Every structure is written in structure tokens, then in C-alpha cells.
Amino acid sequence: MITSLQDTTTLHNGVKMPWLGIGVFKVEEGPELVHAVKVAIKHGYRSIDTAAIYENESGVGQAIQEGLHEAGITREELFVTSKVWNADLGYESTIAAFEASLNKLGLDYLDLYLIHWPVEEKYMDAWKALETLYKQGKVRAIGVSNFQVHHLETLMKDAEIKPMVNQVECHPRLTQKELMEFCLEHEIQLEAWSPLMQGQLFENPVLQEIAAKYNRSVAQIIIRWDLQNGIVTIPKSTKAHRIIENASVFDFELSKEDMAIIDALNQNHRVGPDPDNFDF
Fold first, then answer.
1. SUPFAM superfamilies from the entry (predicted)?
2. What's the topology of domain 8-200+230-236?
3. Domain residues of the chain, as ranges?
4. Nearest C-alpha neighbor of 23 from the set 216, 191, 203
5. Most CB contacts within 10 A, which of 37, 51, 89, 241?
6. Are strands 232-233 and 142-145 parallel, antiparallel or unpaired?
7. What residues contact residue 247 under an 8 Å CB cut-off, 6+ apart?
8. How many CB atoms lie within 10 A of CB 122?
């Protein structure tokens, strides 16, 4: 059982990644972003997930520096993730994009760098760049985002290093069981973005009933479901009480029956783009 916010999963290269982190998707640069990340660090979060396309890496970097100082912890205690955007998928352009992200974040290295989307004809060159960055020690782990099974199979045919992480949309309406099993088989850690389905699950009567049973919020039930499924998760919030609440999931456990009830909510329904049919 995962028992604390500092608990980690060990990636296939031995790097330890926190099970729970904070995401900052679409949070604009400014005081709200800085405050949210600092609150998270203060209350024990050790994983922060951003991306070039979010256009908030500078603010995240500021929050990290201030948050580390105020919490009295070191950079090495944090796990920072960013991602290369579609327009930069190419060998040299991915290297340049990584350096730009590193500069904006004000860091010497990243803990995890991901290919954001599986753009056909481009992600193989980008992966070669990630392998180079990994070998150079500029990033501790490399992975992908929004990759389906067939994307992973194509990538691994020619890859020298297989992905350590695959970050995908995952929630009770999109359980991704086939992908989860494939990643487990190949030692690729599955990570959920939009785990709360951007708030669309809060009024679900089945989840509300389970939440009432455990005297928890629907968000806490979903996050706990993720963790018990062995899925790293990065719920987004800018509100301090929500950030704290989202992390208060380590003192209870869902029964097998309730896990199965939540699994049964799956409709293969996405709130984000379909990785097999997207246009950016």
C-alpha cells in the first residue's frame, strides 16, 4: 500500500518517481501559478509536471526556487517533468527545445522529459534526441505522452532505450486497461493526466456514493483508485485547500469491490484529443 505523499515508484532505470504530483496545465504565468506550486511543495508534494506548450515554465521555475528555500529542502528532493511540443519534434529541434525549457525553469537538469504527442514521422527523431540527453546526464528519465500501444511498439522497434514513462489521459471514464497492461508488461510506468476528467466526474452518482461511504471527496476517491491501480497521477489545482485535499489519500484504501465498480464506469470517453486523430 502506498502510504505517503513521498512514496515513489521505481522506473525501469532505477530512478524513483513520486506516485502523486501536481500538474499545471493551462495555469497562466503569474502569482496564482507561483502560489499553487509553492503550496504544493510546502505540503509535501515532490513532483511537478509542466510542458513547453503550457507557457508557464518560467513561473514554475520561480516557484521551485522560492518553494525549496521556504520548505528547507534541496533540488534533489524534487521530481520535475517537462515535455517537448509537436512543432519541435526533430533531433536538433528537440535538443534546442529541451535547453529552452531547462533555461526557463532555471534548472541544471530535468528528472523526466517527455514527447508530448505521437506525431507521425516525427517522434522517432525526437526520441533519438531524448536518448542523447539521457546519455549526457541532462535528464534522469525519458518517456512519452499520449502514446497508444501501437505507437509504443513502433518506437521500441528502433529505440536504444525504451520509455520509462507514458503519460496519458486516464480516469474512470477512460480506464485504458489494454494500455495499462502493455505498459506493465514492458516496465513502462503509466501516468495519468486529467485524472479528475477536468471536474466532469464530481457529480457522478456512483462516485458520490463511494465517496460518502469512505467520508471522502470524489476527487480523493479517484486519486486513490489511480494509486491502487499502480498509476502515477498529477491532479491539477491552483486552490490551496484542493491541493492539500488531493494529497490526503494515504490513510484509507478502496475495497476490491469498489475498485471494480469504478472500473465499470469506463466508456472510453476522452476530454482531450484522440492520439490517433489529432491536429495541432
1. NAD(P)-linked oxidoreductase
2. TIM Barrel (3.20.20)
3. 8-200+230-236
4. 191
5. 37
6. unpaired
7. 5, 20, 43, 44, 45
8. 18
Cell of 272: 482531450
First-residue to last-residue Cα distance in the chain: 40
Per cent of the chain over pLDDT 70 is 100
What sign results for the dihedral spanned by CA atoms 234, 239, 241, 244?
positive
Look up the pTM and report it: 0.97
Q: What's the CA gap between 216 and 6, in Å, rounded?
A: 21
Q: Going by C-beta distance under 8 Å and a sequence separation of 6 or more, which residues neighbour residue 38?
A: 63, 66, 67, 70
91 is catalytic: no
d(CA 84, CA 68): 25
Tens digits of residue pLDDT in 108-151: 999 999 999 999 999 999 999 999 999 999 999 999 999 999 99
Binned at pLDDT 50, 70 and 90, residue 61 comes out as: very high
Q: How far is CA 179 from the centre of its chain?
A: 16
